[in-house]
């Protein structure tokens, strides 16, 4: 378990992390979301004692990081996959880390196997692709067999097979009862991986909720339908107090209705339906909706000369 209480970090006059309090629990994958510059990396660095908080605390299984004996056995992290020694082989990079943390050398081969790098174990890492570097970074996080794992943008540079692999790995580690904390900008991927979400904007906590509740609370849900008898259907819907809206391609959308309600109404009036579905916005839409006012930079698209980045008004 990771517990943050009033965690704050200032860089000069810039408040990068602003009184963050939340708990990352075991047994689930917790996604960490926020627009660029929201303070995610700074928060993760403070969790690992790589940055000192200006105020507030982080506890790892009830203790400060610096009080953990052999911390890699408590918490493993992938923050910067390029942080390996390029002149050393994959095996030797991990062996050095293992020896420095009193982890048995036999564990190196195990984690190389877990991440699929056994065949290149004896190759120097400077020749590694981005994806291989990510896998090696994940191997180093797993080295101490920790109960808590933290991944900053783990799918960065991975191909579809690699993305699928890391998704399953995180789910499997969570199912083993471990605490998994992961940041990503890839919303579609996060939607498939995380059970719980922590969302921050401009250093502040915006949401600490389940994935399902987050999408439910921050997006529109509606019923979509198509019928070859659209005029008649519209009349029937209106008579029942519903307000269908034309959505193009012969499709109607109705807010505040259920598929059961609309389906039964259509059947009652012997109206043929070619489509009847319940629609919910994606995590990406919900995220954009929630963080709209917490994005540091927005593109001006009206110029016709490509995006120009400009600071947004940072009121409340
Ligand atoms: N060492 C530093 N000195 C000064 N400002 C910093 C420093 N590190 C981060 N910041 C600022 O703190 C804010 C939060 O940065 P951080 O990298 O934690 O955000 P992030 O959510 O990880 O962003 P991204 O999604 O772009 O990686 C940003 O405004 C950044 O410019």
Automatic annotation (TrEMBL):
One matching Pfam family: ABC_tran
All residue ranges annotated as the ABC transporter domain in the record: 2-227
Task: Supply the name of the protein.
Answer: ABC transporter ATP-binding protein
PANTHER family documented for this protein: ABC TRANSPORTER, ATP-BINDING PROTEIN
Keyword field: ATP-binding, Nucleotide-binding, Transport
Q: Which segment of the chain is annotated as a signal peptide?
A: none
- The organism encoding this protein is Streptomyces tirandamycinicus
GO MF terms here are:
ATP binding; ATP hydrolysis activity
Q: Which Gene3D superfamilies match?
A: P-loop containing nucleotide triphosphate hydrolases
UniProt record similarity statement: Belongs to the ABC transporter superfamily.
Q: Which SMART domains match?
A: AAA
